[in-house]
Specification:
It is a single chain. This protein is α/β, with parallel strands linked by helices and 316 residues long. The protein has one domain (6-259, 273-315): Rossmann fold, CATH 3.40.50. The protein contains 10 helices and 13 strands. The chain has helices at residues 13-29, 53-58, 65-70, 99-111, 123-130, 144-155, 170-173, 197-212, 228-243, 287-302; strands at 37-40, 47-49, 84-88, 119-121, 136-140, 163-166, 185-189, 217-224, 248-254, 261-262, 268-269, 275-281, 309-315. A 9-stranded mixed β-sheet has the order 3-13-9-12-8-7-1-5-6, with helices on both faces. A two-stranded antiparallel ribbon has the order 2-4. Strands 10-11 form a two-stranded antiparallel sheet. Strand 7, helix 8 and strand 8 (217-224) form a beta-alpha-beta unit. Helix 1 (13-29) crosses helix 4 (99-111) and helix 1 (13-29) packs antiparallel against helix 10 (287-302). Mean pLDDT is 90; it is low at 72-85. The structure holds S-adenosylmethionine.
């Protein structure tokens, strides 16, 4: 059942999108003094070596964080996104690095003070790096090996009761932390979607979480792949948020075509993950302008073919 290991994918274009959004969201939520609880329902191993065996096997970081870091020329900018926009990669024009990307890269740099990205922080380490002493972090990871690695990685931080690692089903039991005593929480839902039921479970979990704690911020990552459930998920999340009367934001990043290709020897090849999205309920109001500036630059820098594009939409 558990064939997915995030170490193979760490630092890929999906992580770039997810972690850029995560950091921008946290930065805003941490402006208020009151304690914040972050719940990571699918935590992974926490920390990855991009020069290690796992990451080296598929080399996905090469098309993500490593490509972003290697880029020498200034990124292109586009006009600010409209309320709902889908744009192709923009023509080159000099512009400073968008704040959200610069901030993401500065966090990666904190883990790699000598430069590069030999160490790639997963969501648990990114969050812990930004939290203050009085904030809390609840991490769920079910894969026995990743849970053990996460435990060992977190133990090194000596963060005591600030961080709880739970070898439990994030979908099954994470709502027990909602609402937290301070009534301020960010919940990241980042399953691997290796089983089809993950799509429906995200939705059920979000509905239950919203019922328990309507003012929490909820962030869902999902893959954009040719599968009906993947296309339905953002639509259904949008309906959920709208029915609950809550604002939402939906951002996607496409780096290449999703079409199957044929090799010169006639073999059919899958393209690998072409695109992914982040859907937030109760997003910070600061997030949309930050992403409107960042997404065109991510398209420009991470594009693998002419199909690279982004979309940014919000409502409520
Ligand atoms: N959030 C991590 C990050 O950004 O660095 C990556 C998480 S990875 C995409 C998904 C993780 O969820 C995998 O490590 C997998 O073992 C774990 N997982 C799968 N089903 C789970 C479940 N029901 N509850 C908790 N963790 C689960």
């Amino acid at each position: 059942m558990f064939s997915y290991r995030h170490a193979f994918h760490a630092g890929n274009h999906a992580d770039v999108l997810k972690h850029t959004v995560l950091i921008a969201t946290l930065d805003h939520l941490l402006e208020k003094e009151a304690a914040l609880t972050v719940v990571d329902t699918h935590a992974g191993a926490g920390l990855y070596r991009l020069d290690g065996d796992y990451a080296g096997t598929s080399g996905e970081a090469a098309e993500g964080i490593l490509r972003l870091l290697a880029e020498k020329k200034p990124p292109a900018s586009t006009a600010p996104a409209a309320k709902s926009a889908t744009k192709k990669a923009a023509p080159e024009a000099e512009a400073p690095l968008a704040d959200a990307i610069a901030r993401y890269l500065s966090v990666i740099h904190d883990f790699n003070p000598k430069g590069g990205a030999r160490i790639y922080p997963g969501s648990p380490f990114i969050v812990q790096h930004l939290l203050r002493d009085h904030d809390k972090l609840k991490l769920f990871e079910l894969h026995p090996t990743d849970a053990r690695t996460l435990d060992a990685n977190i133990a090194q931080l000596e963060a005591g009761r600030q961080i709880a690692v739970l070898r439990e089903d994030g979908f099954g039991s994470a709502t027990k932390f909602l609402p937290p005593p301070s009534r301020r929480a960010l919940v990241l839902m980042d399953p691997s979607y290796e089983i089809k039921s993950d799509y429906g479970r995200v939705l059920d979990f979000a509905a239950e979480a919203l019922k328990r704690f309507a003012t929490g911020t909820y962030a869902v990552w999902y893959p954009i792949i040719p599968r009906p459930e993947a296309h339905d998920l953002p639509r259904r999340l949008k309906t959920l948020a709208t029915k609950a009367g809550k604002p939402w934001l939906h951002a996607t990043l496409t780096v290449k075509s999703s079409k199957l290709t044929t090799t010169p020897t006639g073999e059919t090849q899958r393209p690998g993950l072409p695109a992914s999205g982040m859907f937030l309920i109760n997003p910070p109001y600061t997030l949309k302008p930050l992403l409107a500036a960042a997404l065109p630059q991510l398209v420009e820098r991470l594009a693998q073919d002419r199909n690279a594009a982004f979309s940014l939409d919000s409502g409520g």
